[in-house]
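Quick start: what a row looks like.
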Amino acid sequence: MLSHQADVVEITDRYRDSAIDLLERFFHEEGFSTPAHRIVGNLDQMLADDTCWVAAVMQDGLLRGIVTVTTMLYVEWGRLGEIGDLYILPGSRNQGLARRLVDAAIDWGRRRGCSGMYVTIAADVEARQRLLQFYKRLNFEPTGRTTMMWAGFTERTLSE
């Protein structure tokens, strides 16, 4: 468990730059090719969108991890939340910080009227991080569905 007090804080202008640093580090460590300007632009859009939420866990006065959540409306489920990004600094792992962020994301989704929260785990990330076990311990269950994506928009379209 936590050896020091850890608080979940919503990302606002006050913590924006630190959040960008965490997201850039996360994307670099995971080998994502997303350029820094896109991380910044997308984060700023999320911060301005009331269907999105970004929070961090603060311990000893420093942000140690981050979570991003988006919501969408579906005919079948109503509003669902999705944890898009979850990252804890390597030296701060195995202290319950990721659980704190996931619990906070679920609480936020509940307050927003979400009927559930889901997460997509890529096979290569699962091989390195063993996230299925982590999320199962938090009562997430496999859906049996396959997620597919069409990503044919140009960079210009994505930034509009």
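That is the whole record. The chain has one domain: 6-159. The mean pLDDT is 91.
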